[in-house]
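Hey, can you fold this one?
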Amino acid sequence: MISNRQLFLRHLAQTSDAPLALEIERAEGLYLYDTEGTKYIDLISGISVSNLGHRHPNVMRAIAEQSEKYLHTLVYGEFVLSPQVKLAKKLAELLPANLDCAYFVNSGTEATEGAIKLAKRYTGRKNLVSFKNAYHGSTNGALSLMSDDYFTAAYRPLLPGVRHLDFNNFDELSKIDETCAAVIVEPIRAEGGVELPFENYLEALRNRCTETGTLLVFDEIQVGCGRTGKMFAFEHYNVVPDIILLAKGFGGGMPIGTFISSREIMSSLTHDPVLGHITTFGGHPLSAAAALATMSTLEENYDELINAVPAKEKLFRTLLQDNPKIKEIRSAGLFMALQLDNFDQLSKVIRNCIDKGLITDWFLFNASAMRIAPPLIIKEEEIIRACEIINEAINQF
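Sure. Predicted structure:
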């Protein structure tokens, strides 16, 4: 009999020639369980998705209740659907006053695409600014924001008019001018291995965008929804964007993304042309219900989940900082990078961790740094155990 693993390799399109190929049977809280009964600590939350852990009771309840009412009804934006309306209202309550209008899509890359179109339509401009070694998605438009030829060369031509600046370089902000529709940036950068902005950098970026009439777009797809110790990462810096992107942890394990702006800016998609941005399944009722449960749970349990993040971050650091093979620890709450020497060493450590019952990974633009981004529900004793495994795995190489 052909195994699921064989069928996986035969009939599912692969993204690399060496997938992990773990066959997961179930998941609960911090843990994944494979078909042989092995229990794994999920230390990366499915890449910053399961911020509340796997199958959080509030999320599962919301999905079950909505599934008894209706699933898809009509393309996004035509019917008044309670899960979407309630979710949009919740976001407006949580965000600054100028971010009061949400457009729901299916994923993070779609949120990026929507923001690109919105910025061009509202400003009437053609050019975009992003930053080197940034990842905002893999569709053709979002891919155009990426600077790395290794990932983009095979898919050219990409969108014209994209300028890639060096992050944290104050001098290069002058390259943002009146031809730019938007600057798209992660306030805390993910795929370079957790890069934080220099002091006053985001403020200077905000000021330059305001001076030139350029929309500032914050991509919080990985760093939003409590991960950094605030509901939204931009709250650490007192800089408010014109558009914010959410996905991943936003849905509590269900596929959903959103780009959020002001009613004034967002209304530009309604005319010239009408249906300026459309999606069939964006804001699917099940996903919207799950996202509402996620955001409500984070809000109602802020002390337990979000305010507790810095102490958990500190415990990770305390338990890992004395390992001489870790060259540097970079972190923003429960989003951390352990810098090792090279990819060969890291790949062996990752496999060793998996063999010891812990799931970790690397970063797209930093293949020598280990990713740590556990569910916010992780407990002290689980952090201690995770760090024991990491130290043991690293010390073997």
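The domain at 58-301 is CATH 3.40.640.10 (Aspartate Aminotransferase; domain 2). Let me know if you want another pass with a different chain boundary.
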